[in-house]
Amino acid sequence: MEMKIMGLSRMMIGAAVAAALGTSVVLTATTATASRQTVETPATVCGPGYTVERQASFTGGVAYLLHNSGKQNACAVTFKTKDVGARTFVWSAVDVKGAGVMKNEEITPLHTVPVYHAAPTNSWVKFSGGTRTADSGGGYEQIK
């Protein structure tokens, strides 16, 4: 059964988000009850032109920092490695020195919605991600 949010299904909302980001989401039926498995990577979640700058593992997941030199944007996304498929709390954040922090917290089966922040090449950026019980991150490093 498809969940409805303000008259829209999760699938319709996901397709709209993917279209806005210029990405696609691959869904495959895994059982007769129509449970779904997504095939995504940090780069496909953030969108075309984003490449992984850094990543940090923690108990239960991996936080990623990506950068798009054409758009001069950073993207942070956290993928779960524990309880994948179960809706649990996870978060991502990206902090551009002198420009503030963008953060997303949600209950999700796989990964956070990507967090974007203007980050010109050579700017100093730190990122982090986590769950309720563990987190990752580090200090500021320069975007190459």
Would you write up a description of this structure?
There is one protein chain. The protein is mostly beta strands and 144 residues long. The protein folds into 2 domains: 1-39, no CATH class; 42-136, no CATH class. It contains 2 helices and 13 strands; from the N terminus they run ββαββαβββββββββ. The strands form 4 sheets. Strands 8, 9, 11, 12 and 13 form a 5-stranded antiparallel beta sheet that branches. It has a 4-stranded antiparallel beta sheet with strand order 5-6-7-10. A hairpin with a 3-residue loop joins β8 and β9. The model is unreliable at 1-36 (pLDDT under 50). It comes from Streptosporangium brasiliense. Keywords: Signal. This is Membrane protein.
Task: Note the overall shape.
Answer: globular
Q: Work out the helix count.
A: 2
Q: Cα distance, first to last residue?
A: 45 Å
User: Helical proportion?
Assistant: 10-25%
Give the strand content.
over 45%
Please state the CA-atom Rg, rounded to the nearest Å: 16 Å
Keywords: Signal
Organism: Streptosporangium brasiliense
Signal peptide: 1-34
Protein name: Membrane protein
